[in-house]
Design brief:
Elements lengths: L2 E7 L2 E7 L4 E5 L2 E2 L3 E6 L3 E3 L8 E2 L5 E2 L7 E2 L7 E4 L5 E12 L5 E8 L2 E2 L5 E4 L5 E12 L4 E8 L6 E12 L1
Antiparallel strand pairs: 1-2, 2-3, 3-4, 5-8, 5-17, 6-17, 7-16, 9-10, 10-16, 11-15, 11-17, 12-13, 12-14, 12-16
């Protein structure tokens, strides 16, 4: 059974419809989305033990709490966004990183939901003489309450570690 809630807060009318299946909040008839983002601007090392194996990008990031709604930082030690909205939601996710793995090396990059790789998000890049590769992926993911979308990295050339110089991930409900 759905119920309608109307409230006025600081001269703004807010309408919300609640049911067992969905939550929709509107401010002045505009849908309010859930969103979150994390970044790292400090070079950090991702341990690689096997060439071609995707591993969690376990670096320390800064979750932007000032610009988050219904999301939080994921489980300690991972880089991503966690759905804490209380509902299953669909998010558009964009993730990018600048990585160093050595001269003329190949790096792989993909997203994971709850640690399970999404092969369809795989992208890669090759370093040149400057040893830096820029990788980017995006995808639409379904996240239940408590689910997290995180980043995975692979050294596709050898088993040398990868240095992540900068990285960002943004998740916006659609």
């Amino acid at each position: 059974m759905a119920c309608e809630i109307k409230a006025t807060i600081q001269q703004q009318e807010i309408n919300a419809t609640l049911s067992d299946q969905t939550i929709e909040a509107k401010v002045n008839a505009i849908k309010v989305p859930y969103y979150g983002q994390m970044s790292s601007q400090t070079p950090q090392i991702v341990d690689i033990t096997t060439a071609g194996a995707y591993v969690p990008m376990n670096i320390t990031g800064t979750f932007d709490t000032a610009n988050a709604q219904g999301t939080s930082a994921p489980t300690v030690g991972t880089f991503g966004v966690k759905n804490t909205s209380g509902r299953a939601l669909r998010f558009f996710v964009l993730a990018t990183a600048d990585v160093e793995i050595g001269n003329n090396k190949n790096v792989g990059w993909r997203l994971a939901v709850n640690g399970v790789a999404l092969a369809e998000t795989t992208c890669g890049a090759k370093t040149g003489t400057n040893n830096l590769a820029k990788v980017l992926t995006q995808w639409i993911v379904q996240l239940n309450d408590g689910d997290e979308v995180t980043c995975l990295l692979a050294n596709l050339t050898d088993s040398n570690d990868i240095q992540v110089d900068r990285s960002k991930i943004v998740a916006v409900m659609i």
